[in-house]
């Protein structure tokens, strides 16, 4: 009996000594399990370029572009920056898809593998955004690991977020980079004379521009770093900031991003689809933002109120910084497809609101690890980690696939026979 008591006591002592490592391991395991389950939709969705082209021109072109992309060349695709394609190509190179049909040609197998890498890049970007918000909410790694899956799932309740990782598109990576840049800008507002944060913020915004040049919509907010006051010294600081941004933009996109004239030319062409707003466009932007914020926003606010374990200091300028991009957004009407244009703005707002709320709230929660674990478990069994939007959007992606594959096989059979 005494030996049993001693064993139990020693086990409890070992748990107390190693509980952080155990809980961190558990948190990592939960995140990996969630990502594995959701990536199964990617595995079922992969196909080669011809089938994707049949109902998604952007997706088909993305597969073609990533296959032409290397870290040392230009893929000659102007609409988007090349960072998304370079990251996806790297993922494909180190973890190519192995579950391929042997009856497919070598080029078709390569297309499928790159299609998977593009979707995986978007999925990981969305999870990284959720984890960044978790980092802002708490300074404790255990809490971060426990709440990140909840934040990630809240994004999946929006059909747009799911659609944009089941389709090859750079907007989830853009959202992540905008969020990182906004976080870097927060520190620059907090420490305006800091050379470190000045450099980090400039680098972050430059790299964001290398994902997609629509980052220009955040330019009026970036200017707020330097004005007011308006004087020669502030103009000099602003020009140096833009210079560092440009160097970062060139560095991650070299040599393609040297062709700045071509990029500007493309933006000028796109300007045709960008007109003055009307009441319908204002309602459209508002509806898109509501749809993409209605789940993540309340969940992030609740998690911040429960698990915020440190306070931040917010400069009034930072609050204005968060508002300005939305003034820019609502001041334009986009005539082309634009349901995903709001994604980086959503990420920007969520980062800003989490930081602002943390300036007001600090909770010293007793048994915080138990609380975080129970919150995760309650969320899991109440709502689940796989919302119905996953299956619904996957079904949409599969629409007309059988017909497209049948036509493709017929055409291929003629090619083989000839």
Task: Explain what this protein looks like in three dimensions.
It is built from 19 helices and two strands. A two-stranded antiparallel ribbon has the order 1-2. By secondary structure, it is mostly helical. Helix 3 packs across helix 4, helix 7 (159-166) crosses helix 18 (388-397) and helix 8 (171-190) runs antiparallel to helix 9. Helix content is 72%, strand content 1%. It has helices at residues 2-45, 49-53, 57-67, 83-94, 106-137, 141-156, 159-166, 171-190, 195-211, 219-223, 232-253, 260-270, 279-293, 296-307, 316-330, 343-358, 368-382, 388-397, 401-417, and strands at 274-275, 333-334.
Name the shape in a single word: globular
Strand order of the largest sheet: 1-2
> Taking all residues together, what is the mean pLDDT?
88
The helix-strand sequence is: HHHHHHHHHHHHEHHHEHHHH
Distance between the termini: 84 Å
Number of helices: 19
- Helix fraction by DSSP (H/I, runs of at least 4): over 70%
Please state the structural category.
mainly alpha
Strand share of the residues? under 5%
Unreliable spans:
none
Q: Tell me about the largest β-sheet.
A: 2 strands, antiparallel
| Secondary structure tally: strands | 2
Question: What attributes characterize this protein structure?
Answer:
418 residues; mainly alpha; two-stranded antiparallel ribbon; 19 helices; 2 strands; 1% strand; globular
């Amino acid at each position: 009996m005494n030996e049993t008591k001693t064993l139990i006591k020693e086990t409890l002592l070992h748990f107390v000594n190693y509980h952080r490592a155990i809980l961190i391991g558990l948190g990592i395991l939960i995140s990996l399990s969630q990502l594995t389950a959701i990536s199964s939709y990617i595995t079922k969705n992969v196909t080669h370029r011809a089938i994707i082209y049949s109902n998604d021109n952007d997706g088909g072109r993305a597969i073609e572009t990533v296959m032409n992309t290397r870290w040392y060349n230009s893929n000659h695709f102007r609409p988007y920056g090349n960072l998304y394609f370079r990251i996806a190509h790297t993922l494909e190179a180190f973890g190519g898809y192995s579950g391929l049909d042997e009856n497919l040609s070598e080029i078709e197998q390569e297309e499928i593998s790159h299609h998977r890498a593009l979707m995986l890049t978007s999925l990981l970007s969305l999870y990284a955004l959720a984890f960044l918000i978790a980092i802002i909410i708490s300074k404790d790694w255990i809490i971060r690991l426990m709440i990140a899956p909840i934040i990630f799932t809240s994004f999946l309740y929006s059909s747009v977020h799911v659609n944009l990782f089941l389709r090859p598109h750079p907007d989830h990576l853009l959202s992540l980079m905008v969020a990182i840049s906004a976080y870097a800008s927060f520190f620059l507002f907090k420490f305006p004379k800091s050379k470190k944060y000045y450099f980090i913020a400039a680098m972050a915004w430059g790299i964001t521009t290398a994902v997609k040049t629509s980052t220009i919509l955040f330019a009026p907010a970036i200017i707020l770093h330097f004005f007011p006051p308006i004087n020669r010294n502030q103009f000099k600081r602003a020009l140096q900031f833009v210079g560092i941004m440009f160097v970062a933009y060139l560095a991650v996109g070299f040599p393609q991003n040297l062709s700045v004239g071509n990029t500007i030319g493309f933006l000028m062409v796109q300007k045709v689809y960008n007109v003055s707003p009307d009441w319908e466009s204002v309602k459209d932007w508002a509806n898109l933002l509501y749809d993409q914020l209605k789940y993540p926003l309340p969940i992030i606010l609740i998690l911040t109120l429960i698990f915020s374990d440190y306070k931040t200091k917010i400069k009034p300028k930072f609050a204005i910084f968060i508002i300005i991009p939305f003034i820019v957004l609502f001041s334009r009407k986009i005539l082309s497809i634009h349901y995903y244009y709001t994604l980086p703005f959503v990420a920007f707002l969520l980062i800003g609101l989490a930081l602002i709320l943390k300036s007001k709230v600090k909770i010293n929660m007793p048994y915080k690890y138990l609380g975080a674990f129970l919150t995760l478990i309650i969320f899991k069994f109440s709502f689940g980690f796989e919302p119905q939007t996953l299956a619904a959007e996957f079904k949409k992606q599969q629409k007309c696939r059988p017909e497209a594959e049948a036509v493709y096989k017929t055409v291929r059979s003629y090619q083989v026979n000839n």
